[in-house]
Amino acid sequence: MQTVLFTSTIFGPIHSRRLGTSLGVNLMPRDGKVCSFDCLYCEAGFNAQGTGSSGLPTRDEVKALLEEKLAAMKAEGQRLDVITFSGNGEPTLHPDFGAIAGDTMELRDRYFPEAKVSVLSNSTRIDRPDVIAALRRVDNNILKLDSALDPTIQALDRPVSPAFSAERVIDQLKNFSGQCIIQTMILRGRKGDVEIDNTTDRETDALIAAYKAINPAEVMLYSIDRKTPAEWLEKVGREELERIADRIRSHGIKVLVS
Question: Does residue 139 contact residue 116 with C-beta atoms inside 8 Å?
Fold first, then answer.
């Protein structure tokens, strides 16, 4: 079974197809997964693998490890475009997420002031004032919306909370008043009675309506890039992604395909 992708709290730098040279911050366990979604395409595997035994890193641990890495990169003359909160689950689930985000901004200013701080979030915690405040402070507040239709969200993202719905999350995303980037995974696949396909006109029309309501700074469209735990999922090629993007762009929405 596919398991956790990141075995350390600070990882990289790696090249991100969307963000450039990225240093990763994993606020989840190094040997397990903690997430409020259980996405079919998650590169860190399914939640069934368990939460591991290492626990969540503390705020002090994250700060010390990040400063050590940034200082070493600075001394070696390395380039850094972005510090990205990602990893083995949803970063905003960490109880000290806001404080850690603040520490990260301060360290960025000290060592690589030209770099951005990004958060990749699945949008499940944007009903919390502390999480909203922290996401408003970072440079790139990147929030997931893979579909605007509930059946697709339930089948593809598999939210842990039964209260999660397309209507609810879109209303919450609107509260950022455009101070966000929306990230949408485009794919298809079928196994038995389960069929996933968010490339259809119906899906695209629903997403366009949602994007117009949210008014994000940008929409990021992408497809599978690495092995997924549901191996029957199919990658959507660049040409098809661009066709979908052009339909969205025709409504005055900025779209990046990666």
Answer: yes
Pair type for strands 187-191 and 116-121? unpaired
How many angstroms separate the CA atoms of 152 and 155, rounded?
A: 5
Which homologous superfamily does the CATH classification assign to the domain defined by 10-257? Answer: Aldolase class I (3.20.20.70)
| Most confident among 6-10, 50-54, 98-102 (mean pLDDT) | 98-102
Tell me the pLDDT tens digit for each residue of 59-94. 999 999 999 999 999 999 999 999 999 999 999 999
Residue holding tokens 């770099």? 115
Q: State how far the alpha carbon of 58 is from the alpha carbons of 90, 147, 243, in Å.
A: 16, 34, 44
Q: Are 20 and 258 in contact (CB under 8 A)?
A: no
Which secondary-structure segment (H or E) carries 140? strand 140-144
Q: Name the token pair of 87.
A: 């990893």
Q: How many CB atoms lie within 10 A of CB 143?
A: 22
Cα separation, 135 vs 124, whole angstroms: 13
CB atoms within 10 A of CB 150: 13
* Cβ atoms of residues 103 and 59 within 8 Å: yes
For 201-206, the CB contacts below 8 A with 24+ separation are 202/149, 203/147, 203/148, 203/149, 203/152, 204/244, 204/247, 204/248, 206/147, 206/148, 206/149
d(CA 219, CA 114) in angstroms, rounded, equals 23
Instruction: Give the global pTM.
Output: 0.94
In angstroms, the CA 176 to CA 221 distance is 20
Residue with tokens 């090629």: 237
176 vs 38: CA distance, rounded Å: 25
